[in-house]
Amino acid sequence: MEQLLAIMPLSEQQRSTVRNMGVNIVTADDIARKQVAPDDITIMYGWNAEISLPVLKAPHSHLKWIQTFSAGVDYLPLSEIAQHHIVVTNASGIHGPAIAQAILGYIFYFTRGLWTAEQRRPERFWEQSADDLLVADETSAIIFSTGHIAVETARLLHQMNVYVAGVNRTGHPADNFDETYAIDDYQKGLAKADIIINVMPGTPATTGFFNQQFFDQLDHKLLFINVGRGSSVVNDALLNALKQGRVKYAALDVVDPEPLPKDSPLWANDHILLTPHVSGVVDHLDTRLFPILYDNLKTFVSTGLVSRNQVDLSAGY
Amino acid sequence: MEQLLAIMPLSEQQRSTVRNMGVNIVTADDIARKQVAPDDITIMYGWNAEISLPVLKAPHSHLKWIQTFSAGVDYLPLSEIAQHHIVVTNASGIHGPAIAQAILGYIFYFTRGLWTAEQRRPERFWEQSADDLLVADETSAIIFSTGHIAVETARLLHQMNVYVAGVNRTGHPADNFDETYAIDDYQKGLAKADIIINVMPGTPATTGFFNQQFFDQLDHKLLFINVGRGSSVVNDALLNALKQGRVKYAALDVVDPEPLPKDSPLWANDHILLTPHVSGVVDHLDTRLFPILYDNLKTFVSTGLVSRNQVDLSAGY
């Protein structure tokens, strides 16, 4: 019988659904009270290092599958997980609307006068003007990634007649994008864009991607947005680009390191909007996540295989 | 021959289009240099009190039609214009996308963590949390107005699965609204809404509409947005409602009076986002406005009638 360690909360109804599939539900309390041995856990629903690492590292661990609550999985010990042939499924798809809406919030913060108004507020200065007032149909965007979050972002931007280019590994087409470019040949798309949006996962390949060389290509861009991972951006390179006017504003929901230290020069630049890695936070996460667990459990109990959202452990997403 | 006073700029191409319709173009300079008498103007494109009032008040004025550059026309001397049987056409439709995008900006400012982040910024306090993080599909909205701006706002909110109610004079249905209510019977719609959006024009009927009695109906609403007219909101009543938690946040692009005096208590309330009447500002206004002038000129030169965007001078919009 499968033993599912429920780190994410399960409602009464969800618990009974899981049990009816022949899966036993275990809690961290059960392990702490030694009613269940960490070795016995076969499925982990959620991740909490303090609870999860002892399960992963148990000498006779039977762990076969981890269902995470996030799209990115860079906080997991991926190589150790891969060594043990454990399957990881993520929450890709759930956070798309939240992050896409956050991205619209960042764009309109700068293009509909909110930024200027906030800058003037300490002086209580009200004047019927603002910098950079633009209607979306006058702007174009390039999104690094054409995954779920990027597709939802492109869909919404399209509704406002923004021209949207996407960047992925091979340049293959993707829903809601006007055009797509390969990651090693994106320069033509970048040249057209006013708004640059990073949604790429944190992997060895994306670490430091937005470096001095990247920013040196820019000329009077409006806005750089990072909702991917802080590790993809070289902070000094971004700060230089802002100083040189290569890009006028930045909105960073993710930074390196997190939490951002008080002495980081990012704080001191008022052309940077900083939010604390909350763009993907959704209310009712348990309700939104359960269908992914459920679909995967259905096949897992009969075939030992998951049916959706499986992470490629070597690629890291 | 019609004499069009061009207060709004016209491009070379636009000028030749107008002239080819048999319309003469006059500038404020022509009047100042007495090359054309104010009495001779028959059409005014735009409005600037200093230039326009002498034309309107000229003893033998031939003014027949004013094409404004704004959706609201409450800054015009409407009763005097009506007395002289002058037709007014507005720019309704042009500002819709700009204002709808500003409204999304205000909503996501509060629901995607920007407000909280800005509050914490002076202390350089970065913590992976924020107040009131919501995905749009968890919210519902009520829009006072079902005109062009409201319809575009409802369209975009619908794209994010927001339930949207509208309020108009009779409760007649309108595009993109889930339901509509009459202005004297909107309470059921209001009860369901988290976000209240005023887009109504400034008229005697809407002055002071959002008063103490209105706000006393509210219970734990998330956000009150005003992009209509400042005169529609009783400031003290809004401030009381915020203090009592009847509504948590407000976003005011329009206020009464404008400019907002430095001693206004609205400034002191950090739950109010204030922008300086810029939600409707569009880039390339001349390009966007000309098609309305053109359509109206076509019929005006042959029949003396305009074909679109005519303002009901008694209603004021």
Automatic annotation (TrEMBL), chains A, B:
Coiled-coil positions: none
Start and end residues of each D-isomer specific 2-hydroxyacid dehydrogenase NAD-binding domain: 105-279
Keywords: NAD, Oxidoreductase
InterPro entries named among the record's database cross-references: D-isomer_2_OHA_DH_cat_dom, D-isomer_DH_NAD-bd, NAD(P)-bd_dom_sf
A Pfam match: 2-Hacid_dh
Family statement drawn from the similarity comment of this UniProt entry: Belongs to the D-isomer specific 2-hydroxyacid dehydrogenase family.
Protein name: D-3-phosphoglycerate dehydrogenase
Source organism of this protein record: Furfurilactobacillus rossiae DSM 15814
